[in-house]
Write a structure and sequence with these properties.
Layout lengths: L1 H6 L5 E9 L6 E14 L14 E2 L6 E6 L3 E7 L4 E6 L2 E6 L1 E2 L13 E9 L10 H20 L9 E8 H10 L4 H9 L5 E9 L2 E9 L9 E6 L2 H10 L10 H10 L2
Parallel strand pairs: 3-10
Antiparallel strand pairs: 1-2, 1-9, 2-4, 4-5, 6-7, 8-9, 10-11, 11-12, 12-13
Helix pairs in contact: 5-6
């Protein structure tokens, strides 16, 4: 999820992993390697994928990464399969989820016989991007959980949202707002509003239709309230929340989002 969030802002990431020779009689470590992650494949068919907290996130639909690998070439493919691989490292047996690479194992000339066991992801972030992806994911997860609780009390918010969370520049953000299905007044307000150079965008979808967007100031400090704006693509969601959300009972990290929504059209 993290790599996807920054790649959307055209920030390449550097992935460090151990290469595991799966063609050898005894699966062994070939050594460590690093690649530049430059793209991804994200099929939208099928059911949404959820995090451990129950949040449905579009980034989890990714099934391939495209990397620049000096051992293979540009646009090399890493497939994110769900198979675990086990091997011996010294006296320790390790078993973990590994990814399919285009590398050959040492004992064969056959491609795709070495897997990647991920170790680290390095992201060369501009120093003024102070709010990390993890902080935004934490807030969106909490907000989505509160929405789920409201649904259970009878507040009609429709089906569970699938979230697309990613970093964006102000230029890309306003370019997309120009083409979005919004009321003319809302569009003008957003386009004329002052925003920071870098934004975190969390867009809630029902199917392929955006219904709500949380915009965060990526240049703020993590300890602050860095919500910058809320966009209501589907007016019914905001109207339902304004009628039925007990703001006084909210004491968690997403309270300021609900307060924004309630006060926005009051």
């Amino acid at each position: 999820m993290t790599a996807y969030a920054y790649l959307r802002a055209k920030i390449p990431c550097y992935l460090n992993f151990e290469l595991i020779d799966i063609a050898a009689a005894d699966t062994t470590v070939m050594g460590r390697h690093a690649v530049a992650v430059t793209g991804f494949s994200q099929p939208m068919a099928g059911v949404p994928v959820t995090t451990e907290t129950g949040l449905q996130v579009r980034a989890l639909r990714i099934n391939k990464l495209y990397v620049h690998d000096d051992g293979v070439g540009p646009f090399s493919r890493i497939e994110l399969d769900d198979e675990t691989t086990s091997w011996i490292d010294g006296d320790e047996e390790i078993e973990m989820l590994c990814w399919q690479t285009s590398w050959r194992g040492k004992s064969t000339e056959e491609l795709y016989t070495a897997k990647a066991a991920p170790l680290n992801l390095w992201i060369p972030v501009y120093h003024k991007i102070r709010v990390p992806f993890s902080a935004v994911l934490d807030i969106v997860s909490d907000f989505d959980l509160r929405l789920h609780e409201f649904r259970q009390t009878g507040i009609d918010l429709g089906q569970v949202f699938e979230w697309d969370i990613f970093l964006s520049t102000i230029n890309d953000f306003k370019r997309e707002i120009l083409e979005a299905e919004l009321d003319a007044g809302d569009r003008r307000d957003i386009l004329e509003r002052s925003f920071p150079r870098f934004l975190w965008r969390a867009i809630a979808y029902l199917g392929s239709t955006p219904v709500l967007e949380l915009v965060f100031d990526a240049t703020d400090i993590e300890e602050g309230s860095f919500l910058s704006h809320v966009i209501e693509y589907e007016k019914r969601i905001g109207e339902t929340l304004r009628r039925g959300v007990p703001i006084g009972e909210l004491t968690d990290k997403s309270r300021h989002i609900f307060e924004w929504i309630v006060e926005q059209k009051s």
